[in-house]
């Protein structure tokens, strides 16, 4: 488990100490290292709390920049098939200079080569991440297929002081001085009915949870107008289940049992 956080602000220079407070609020998620990346020209700031699992060296520290320098990533999770992904990438571009063995580096180079959509389709694991495209000045947030890793986001503040916040936990967002903390009274009934607040809502007004199997991209006009883009679906549990119902196996019971056992064994080995 790691912790991610960040924000976009026109007044980012005024708040360059805020990201440290946001990191501290989620330090329990990753005690091994603390990282901050800031681009003053764009107003985007990333924070990261690292729990080292795959690559214990400093080469896995975040936020991480791609080889080309175009992308910057803050990421929480684990990509179980990252070695297979890395092998595929190496065949496409044999000149990739790997700095370490982390799945973080595999993920960011996959996005560099394949783009967001194809990368999300190919990776297997649990994750949430924010990635900044320095060339197109886009911010992308993504969450794993079943929502194992959390990710909150939303606009807060007014006028030129408006900021777009995101993070693994609400307590990180609450550290920003523009965070209002206004209770969304409309979700109280949902909480009483479900004994929890369902996605995409949170207890706070204008703060949401990114839906499982979804990603969103804030482009220049969203950042300028303080608007939210629509979620994009890259995987749907409902569609997957319906596809299974409509395309049932036409093999023997023994073959189905064997395939199930093999898939379970592979899944456990990857994790």
Describe the structure.
By secondary structure, the protein is an alpha+beta fold. The chain contains 9 helices and 12 strands. The protein has helices spanning 18-25, 82-92, 103-114, 116-122, 170-173, 188-194, 220-225, 237-246, 253-270; strands spanning 3-9, 33-39, 44-50, 64-65, 71-79, 125-133, 138-143, 152-156, 163-167, 208-209, 214-218, 232-233. The strands form 2 sheets. Strands 2-3-1-9-8-10 form a 6-stranded antiparallel beta sheet. Strands 4-5-6-7-11-12 form a 6-stranded antiparallel beta sheet. Strand 2 (33-39) and strand 3 (44-50) form a beta hairpin. Helix 2 crosses helix 3 and helix 3 packs across helix 4. The longest helix has 18 residues, at 253-270. It is globular, with a radius of gyration of 20 Å.
Quick summary of this structure?
By secondary structure, this protein is of the alpha+beta class. It has helices spanning 18-25, 82-92, 103-114, 116-122, 170-173, 188-194, 220-225, 237-246, 253-270, and strands at residues 3-9, 33-39, 44-50, 64-65, 71-79, 125-133, 138-143, 152-156, 163-167, 208-209, 214-218, 232-233. Helices cover 31% and strands 24% of the residues.
Strands side by side in the biggest sheet: 2-3-1-9-8-10
Treating each run of at least 4 consecutive H or I residues as one helix, how many helices?
A: 9
From the alpha-carbon coordinates, what is the Rg to the nearest angstrom?
20 Å
Structural class category? alpha+beta
**How many strand units?**
12
End-to-end Cα distance, whole Å, is 14 Å
What gross morphology would you assign? Answer: globular
pLDDT < 50 runs, ≥5 residues = none
Mean of pLDDT: 92
The main β sheet shows up as: 6 strands, antiparallel
β-strand percent reads 15-25%
H-E order: EHEEEEHHHEEEEHHEEHEHH
Q: Helical residue percent? A: 25-40%
């Amino acid at each position: 488990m790691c912790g991610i956080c960040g924000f976009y602000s026109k007044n980012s220079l005024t708040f360059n100490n805020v990201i440290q407070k946001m990191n501290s609020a989620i330090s329990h998620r990753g005690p091994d290292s603390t990282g901050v990346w800031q681009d003053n020209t764009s107003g985007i700031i990333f924070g990261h709390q690292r729990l080292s699992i795959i690559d214990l060296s400093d080469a896995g520290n975040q936020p991480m920049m791609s080889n080309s320098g175009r992308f910057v990533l803050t990421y929480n999770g684990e990509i179980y098939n990252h070695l297979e992904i890395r092998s595929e990438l190496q065949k496409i571009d044999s000149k990739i200079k790997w700095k370490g063995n982390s799945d973080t580096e595999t993920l960011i180079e996959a996005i560099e080569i394949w783009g967001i959509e194809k990368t999300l389709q190919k990776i297997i694991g649990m994750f949430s991440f924010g990635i900044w495209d320095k060339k197109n000045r886009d911010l992308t947030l993504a969450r794993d297929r079943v929502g194992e890793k959390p990710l909150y986001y939303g606009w807060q503040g007014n006028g030129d002081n408006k900021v777009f916040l995101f993070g693994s936990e609400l307590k990180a967002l609450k550290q920003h001085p523009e965070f209002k903390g206004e209770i969304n009274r409309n979700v109280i009934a949902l909480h009483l009915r479900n004994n929890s607040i369902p996605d995409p809502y949170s207890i706070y007004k204008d703060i949401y949870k990114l839906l499982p199997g979804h990603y969103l991209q804030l482009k220049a006009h969203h950042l300028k107008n303080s608007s939210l883009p629509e979620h994009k679906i890259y995987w749907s549990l409902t569609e997957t289940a319906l596809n299974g119902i409509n395309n049932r196996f036409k093999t023997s019971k023994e073959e189905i049992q064997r395939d199930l056992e093999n898939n379970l064994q592979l899944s456990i080995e990857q994790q």
